[in-house]
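Hey, can you fold this?
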Amino acid sequence: MNDLTGFNPNAVANPNNNIFGLPFTEEESKVVILPVPWEVTVSYGAGTARAAEHVFKSSMQVDLMDMDGNAGWKQGFFMKEIDKKLLLKSDYLRKEAELYIDYISQGAELLKNKFMCKSVKEINEGSNYLNNWVYEQSKAILEKQKIVGLLGGDHSTPLGLMKALAEKHGAFGVLQIDAHCDLRIKYEDFTYSHASIMYNALNEIPELVKLVQVGVRDYCEQEWEYICNSNFRVITYFDKNIKERLFEGQLWKTITEEIIQHLPEKVYISFDIDGLDRKLCPNTGTPVPGGFESEEMIYLFKKIKESGRELIGFDLVEIGVGETDWDSNVGARILWRLCNLMV
């Protein structure tokens, strides 16, 4: 346990400290948060590339009393600095992506426009760069025996982290909280689209033995066929079906226990904020009616821990940036609970 002599957890957060106002260095911390300011391939609302800085600011309003009683924060949480060069690269490629998306939305053909062909090539190369950057950053943190929590950015960002975790842990499963399947193949000609993260993870990480999706309520025929033909490697709990079971009297506890039975011993949580009810994330990039309360998800995560399974890392992505700090306020509190549950 870190030496907290002189630190008052009941006082106003010191903005000169790190995230949540905690006084830890990276070396002292058990959980290291990797901010990834990237939103190149988002296909609707933008803004999530700057979510990490807003969440950091909002985290100063989070009270440090651990609601689940294990005071995990005393083992240290630390957020690394936001990489400004990566953010600038995202901004530049996002402009190109916006032009391209507008071009194809009008029914134009890609091969008839050399400039657009060049843009797609640059965007895909940029996404490769991003994946390698996240992998190298994550691997370096994991080698120090720390837990990595990735703070996005769009949902394309955690592929490199999952690859690093596969090298460290071997076989593992992913619990995906999301309004979308993210199983599209090369969406909008972007190989590493935010809408393709789980397809790419399943395709490129053989150690990913099981994907359990919870809350999906917007998906295409291609994704449905992928799930049906996955030989149960992908298990999807659609929001509609969950709600109908609840309406008919089943307990969330019962559904939660069933979900957990599909997960292997080691579990990675991929939390797209749009899996929640939109009132909690009004400015998320691709909102869909429906979704969960935050406590329903925290309950699920707690029950995974209680089952004896090991939580090996997480991402929290697609947090929006609006006129108020509500999105980042909710995001900061979910991040707080996730970090505590990890340890």
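Oh, and this one too while you're at it.
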Amino acid sequence: MSGVSFLTVDERSDGQRLDNFILRECPGIPKTRLYRAMRKGEVRVNKGRAKPDQRLRLGDRVRLPPLSAPPAREPGAAPPGWQARLAASVVFEDDHLLAINKPSGIAVHGGSGLQFGLIETLRTMRPDARFLELVHRLDRETSGLVLIAKKPAALRALHELLRAQGKIDKRYLALAEGAWPRHMRVVDAPLQRFERKSGERMVKVAKEGKPSTTEFRIRENFSAVTLIEARPLTGRTHQIRVHALHAGHTLLGDSKYQSPESEAYARKLQLKRLFLHAESLSFVLNEQRYELHAPLDSELTSVLKRCPK
């Protein structure tokens, strides 16, 4: 990108974060360069300085400085196998939204070396759809419910619900190492993101981190592991995984945070992925109550059957 340029916020981007808007409209811009430009005040909204998390409004004018970027690459078409899996993974659809039971192994969007993701695949599958936008994210390794808005108004309303704590009830299923104590019902610990020397992005509990709270309850006890239900009250990166680690019970199959013991036990159970699944979502949208549920896939149910009592 050479020279100063300007972007105008349209209906599709009304309510979106500034950084996400720029990264979507200008694919390939290095994130480090973008955030440095924001810190220096080189990125402006309606001629004023702006922070990355500023919410944009219809008609806002965004000024961008020259930002070096590699040549834009069009996302490739998703393999037919992924398209078939996603077509079979729709758990709910109406005029406002689409709910997918995302398989583990597919990112919600392309980027960072990934040629395609969930949203790109859906757009390939539905070329006539006028509007398809992710409402929220799931880690690539995590399976379960993902919401896609089919209208700008639905996207704005759902983002408002996500920002208002408790308006969207999310429940996850996870398999934790060891016997989860019955008294451990809430983990309230601030979380901070950091990078290892290798460049791997991680999260840790730190006083300087953002406030983070997760409720836990036991769903089923086994001899060496516990099936737990997790209800995140905040939406931090890797929140459930790191709060479980902080409680002393890493999640099985978690390549980032697992202990040697949990790694060995996961191999014994023939678990080849993170056991974390977004099982349910409930909320009120347009005066309608939504109660969405995504069952565990056959891989995870088979793992549970192999767990000795």
